[in-house]
Amino acid sequence: MSASSFTARRTRQLGLALVILVVVALLPFGVKDVYTLNILILMLMYAALSQSWNILGGYCGQLSLGHALYFGIGAYSSTLLYTKFGILPWFGMALGGVIAAGIAMAIGHACFRLAGHYYVIATIVIAEIGLLLFHNWDWAGAATGIELPFGRDSWVTFQFARNKLPYFYFALGFAAVTWLVTWKIENSKWGYWWRAVKDNPEAAESLGVMVFNSKMMAAAVSAFFTAVGGSFYAQFVAYIDPESVMTFQFSLLMALPAVLGGIGTLWGPALGALILIPMTELTRTFMGGSGKGIDLIVYGCLIMVIALARPDGLVGLFHRRKRSAA
Amino acid sequence: MSAAALLEVRNVWQRFGGLVANSDVSLSVQAGEIVGLIGPNGAGKSTLFNVIAGLRPPTEGSVWFDGQDVTRLSAPERCARGIGRTFQVVKSFDSMSVADNVIVGALVRTSSTKEARRKADEVLEFAGLAHRAEVSAIELTPPEKRRLEVARALATEPKLLLLDEVMTGLTPSEARAGVDLVRAVRAKGVAVLMVEHVMEIVMPLVDRAVVLNLGAVLAQGKPADVVRDERVIGAYLGERHRA
Amino acid sequence: MTAAIVIQSLASGLLMGLLYGLIAVGLALIFGLMDVTNFAHGEFLMFAMYVTFFCFSFFAIDPLLASPIVAAALFVFGAVVYLGIVRFAMRARTNVGMVQIFATFGLAIVMRGLAQLLFTPDYRSIPHTWLGGKTVSMFGIYLPAPQLAGGAVSILAFAVLYVLIKKTDFGKALEATREDAGAVALVGIDKNKVFALGWGLGSALVGLAGAIMASFFYIYPDVGASFALIAYVTVALGGFGSVFGAFAGGIVVGLVEAMTAMVLPPSLKSVGIYAVYLLVVFFRPRGLFGSI
Question: Which residues of chain A approach chain B closer than 8 Å at the C-beta?
Answer without folding.
Answer: 2-3, 6, 187-189, 192-193, 195-196, 198-200, 202-211, 264
